[in-house]
């Protein structure tokens, strides 16, 4: 085997190994990014759920206050006539 063929074979091995290594590294980083996206989505859903629960509770409290005010006004109007 000539020197040129040996060099060509060695270069092709190195290039092939580099490509294979790069593909594996790229797959690993892509999987990590996908997983991070899922984790962010779950956190976002939990945060929205908490915000919605808080807003609902505020609405319930405001409704109670409004009913109390209407009841008090009704009592004042009833006793005033």
From TrEMBL:
It comes from the Eukaryota. It is found in: Mitochondrion. The chain crosses the membrane at residues 6-25. One of its GO terms (cellular component) is mitochondrion. One of its GO terms (biological process) is mitochondrial respiratory chain complex IV assembly. InterPro entries: Pet117. Keywords: Membrane, Mitochondrion, Transit peptide, Transmembrane, Transmembrane helix. PANTHER family: PROTEIN PET117 HOMOLOG, MITOCHONDRIAL (PTHR28163:SF1). Belongs to the PET117 family. This is Protein PET117 homolog, mitochondrial. It comes from Musca domestica (House fly).
């Amino acid at each position: 085997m000539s020197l040129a063929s040996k060099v060509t074979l060695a270069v092709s091995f190195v290039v092939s190994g580099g490509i294979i290594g790069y593909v594996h590294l790229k797959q690993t980083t892509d999987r990590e990014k996908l997983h991070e996206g899922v984790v962010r989505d779950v956190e976002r859903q939990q945060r929205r759920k908490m915000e919605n629960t808080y807003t609902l509770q505020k609405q319930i409290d405001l409704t109670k206050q409004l009913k109390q005010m209407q009841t008090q006004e009704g009592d004042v109007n009833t006793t005033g006539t």
